[in-house]
Amino acid sequence: MSDMKIIYDNIIYSLQNNGGVSVYWSELLKRVKDDNNVDAYFVDYGDNSRNVMRKLFELPSDRTRIKNYNHLFTKVNSYVPFYINGSKDVLYHPSYYRYSPHHLTVNTVHDFINEKYRKGIPKYINSNQKWQALNRSDLLICISKNTKDDLLYYMPHLKYRQIEVVYHGVSTEFHPIIDSKLSNTFLFIGSRKSYKNFKLAVSLTKICKEFSLLIIGGGDLTKEEKRLLDCEIRERYSYKRHVDNQELNSIYNNVFALIYPSSYEGFGMPILEAMKAGCPFVALNTSSIREITNNSNILIEPRPTGELLEQMVQLVEKLKINEIRSDVIADNLITASKYSWDRCYKETIRSYKKLL
Q1: pTM for the complete prediction?
Q2: SS3 162
Q3: 91 near 352, Cβ under 8 Å?
Q4: DSSP states of 245-290
Q5: What number of other Cβ atoms are within 10 A of residue 167's Cβ?
Q6: Partners of 300 in the β-ladder
Q7: With contact defined as beta carbons under 8 Å apart, do 214 and 254 qualify?
């Protein structure tokens, strides 16, 4: 057994049913639990059964401590430090922003959406939780260079802290399907919060009358969203609450393009999945998106709404041309091949070792 001892705190599974952080955390756990070079221990919570990702794998019972808190208490507990007997030669890596006074703390920094877009008391509560954890961390792992830049913008005093950039991976379940049938469907996936610019996807579909819009995830459609969809593209949209990776890969292969006009991303997982599956995307040249797409020449420059829509329509017309579409897909596949969860895990372990 290795001298490297790590406690993994799985509290994220109690804070969300699904999402990018849950995917990231699950990919780490699936690898570390079978790594004989790491002495890993896990803290689970009794209310995590609702999380989609947690249901997909088992953790060794002899190395897992379960805290049987109810859901409300677990959420409250996520805002306080993690207390368990230990020493400073043991690493503590929480799945969401926490710290341990008794261990070397490692936090993964995902984004600064809360600081950029939320307001009022919720912003204060979440920022305070994050800042408390980051200020007391011995190692900070940023999921992109853009996220590192944001970290140092909002918390410049951390510039002398150990900060590593470790990119996410992408599942091998995403891949091109030979002879897949292309449909006149746009895909919008994930959160529909204001900075995701969901209305742009609806407006694009309204303009491109031969296309329909498939919406996946992001929670149930609100009354306002249903009114918008029925007013703008009635009978030309559909919604799926959740799909597994196998079905999602099939969807990526069948739709015309992923429409992802987000103004800000810490990473941008759906874009990477689409690239890996051979699905073109329509996205803005902003934040980490330009980074993970290797400054793709099909990214759209942020402009006022009218100009943005004009650029989006122009890109859709270009993607209708077989030669251009094939070149875009080929370039995206090369870029996506540079990302893997195995690489993410190895670089995470390498970051731990730098701390010890």
Answers
A1: 0.93
A2: strand
A3: yes
A4: HHHHHHHHHHSSEEEE--S--SS-HHHHHHHHHT--EEEBS-HHHH
A5: 20
A6: 284
A7: no
What 3-state DSSP class applies to 191? coil
Q: How many helices (H) and strands (E) does the chain have?
A: 14, 12
> Is residue 1 predicted with pLDDT exceeding 60?
no
83 vs 100: CA distance, rounded Å: 6
Note whether 288 and 113 are within 8 A (CB): no
Residue 348, both tokens: 């995470």
Residues 6 or more apart in contact with residue 211 via CB below 8 angstroms: 184, 185, 186, 205, 236, 256, 316
Q: Is the pLDDT of residue 266 over 50?
A: yes
State the Cα–Cα distance between residues 85 and 118, nearest whole angstrom.
36
User: Mind listing the pLDDT tens digit for each residue in 29-66?
Assistant: 999 999 999 999 999 987 777 888 888 899 999 999 88
C-alpha R_g of the chain: 21
Tell me, what's the pLDDT at 262?
96
Q: Which fold has domain 5-169+340-355?
A: Rossmann fold (3.40.50)
User: Rounded CA gap, 42 and 63, in Å?
Assistant: 6
Structure tokens of 282? Answer: 């329509």
- Domain 185-336, CATH 3.40.50.261 — does that match? no
H or E element that contains 82: none
Q: Which residues pair with 104 in a beta bridge?
A: 91
Domain borders along the chain are 5-169+340-355, 185-336
Sheet containing 39-45: order of strands: 64-67, 39-45, 5-9, 90-94, 104-109, 139-142, 162-165
Strand partners, 331: none
